[in-house]
Model the fold of this input.
Amino acid sequence: MAEQTSVSLRPLQVDDLDAVVALDRRVSQVSRRGFFEKWIKALARDERTFVALAACDGDAIVGFGLAHILNGEFGGAETVAVLDALTVDPERKAAGIGHVLMDGLCAGAKERGASEIQTQAGWDETELLGFFAAVGFSLAPRLVLEREAASGQF
Done:
């Protein structure tokens, strides 16, 4: 980590949608407004099943993290949190904001009964994988499989 930045964490609000979409678009180069609209609507319906944080420098959102809580899905017996998004302003990279967000997400997940946090990343996303390793993630003992929905019957 380079220069440390002082940010405050607060719960993400419905009114933060435009700021979240804009920041995500700066990072990903595409708009995922539909994803974030669904996510924030679900959060508004049931806050106990989600952990959603904004990292703020003053009034400006400079990062955000989103996780949802699973209990018994995929044959698991324990409650786990699944990290859906973790985004930091590209101009603020290496300032510790991602670490602050992960600490907050972990605390929120623990408050909701989760014993661990899981996520996915592509093998070619070396910077992201390096970050995940730095905040304590390791390979899970399972594989993620996929197939085209139109390629056969379910």
Summary: The helical segments are 17-28, 33-45, 97-111, 126-134. The longest strand covers residues 60-71. The mean pLDDT is 90. The chain has one domain: 8-151.
